[in-house]
Write a structure and sequence with these properties.
By secondary structure, this protein is of the alpha+beta class. About 30% of the residues lie in helices and about 35% in strands. It has one domain.
Length: about 110
Amino acid sequence: MITTTVYLIHFDRPYIAKTGKQKKTAGHYLGSTADLAFRIREHANGRGARLMEIITQEGIGWSVVRTWNGDRKTERKLKNRHNHAALCPCCNQNIAHLRHGAGKGGEA
């Protein structure tokens, strides 16, 4: 098993995509990587994931707000919840203390 970092990105404002008659919104991106610093640089340059490319093109700011130690199975388990806002300390005040970089007590 390859150990990776699973990370949650919170967008400064929701992205709204209009595809045909449907309107899809995204407020978060959840991914995993073996090298978080490299992956974040890739996202900042609009590379690595289609959604992050679009967010960059739209000029939407974002930040990494939470991380987990795990693997691709951990990522899939979290994605299958289909509720990234519940995992986000910016959106869910019950877990605000878990915000990445919040100091002691936060997950990293």
